[in-house]
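Contributing new records

If you add data, match the layout below exactly. Sequence lines come first and carry their own label; structure lines follow with theirs. Keep one chain per record. Anything else will be rejected by the validation script.
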Amino acid sequence: MIHPWLQPTWTRLVELGERLPHALLFVGPAGLGKRALAEALAARLLCDAPRADGHACGHCEPCLWRISGNHPDLQRVVPEAEALVASEADGAAEAGGKAASTQIRIDQIRELQAALSVTGHHGTRRVVLLDPAEAMNGVTANALLKLLEEPPEGCVFVLVSSSPRTLLPTIRSRCQQWHFGRPDEAALACWATHADPGVRAMLALGGGMPLAAERLAEGGGAALHARFVRDIGGLQPADVLRLAGQWEAWLRSKEALAAGFGLPELADWMQRWVSDLAALRLGGRLRFFPAQEGVLAALASRMSVAAASACYNELAQIRKVSRHPLSLRLVLEDMLMRYARAVAGARG
């Protein structure tokens, strides 16, 4: 499905036709529908007879392969944890074993290299979808870079990222970047008229991104939101280590994994919470947690502008490594200590 705010981009992609580059990087905040756009593009490229609007016909042999999940020329590279959640939804998961990785591993790129080393099964066209690109560590990214530098004939790579600055500059330079921004007010208003009230309630926390709001609501976002506000709103410096331990267990729980709520999402919420604190100290309006104005105002009164700004920047650095933490517990302790120190600072 191409969402209305992405329709102009879809039209431009279709118009490129055979002039489409061998590697594209879709960049923009999470919750805009970038993955759906990438899937639609892959479907078009593999279809024998695309429709007049550019979409795949859905009836030819390659389309039937793709719809059944068995197209040999379509490679999806996603973190193991995401694939596991999908298999559980299909009833195909195996019990036991260690926790699934939230990273794209080097073994996955090696498997991709092997798959692309043989001739395509249906013509020369092949498509690789990799999402999220920031889930690659340095070793994995360098392995992918070799494929981007010497792409197999007829192969199109589509990378999706919400944090492009964490990618290797060489990865970005090998891709044609397509940037996506927040839907305008008219598009959001139109969406809101058809959205469930529970979904609309998650829109602010989702940064104004409709699909992020939908995912939050479907994944128990209200409960996640309530726990986060309760924990962070009353945090005392002496409670940092205890809360870090509780949050570690929370992020490893089946509920959090099923909701797709991990350290990157938690770090993002922390940064948005501090962003609202800074906004209040500067006389601005709340953007992400409007229903918590009373709690935030009380905290902001104890926080200096300099402390709020410094904490925001520190959380931004933590967020950059949130997909590749050396130790989940240590990252949580560091994040909470920096926040508690900023809130406890003198007003200025």
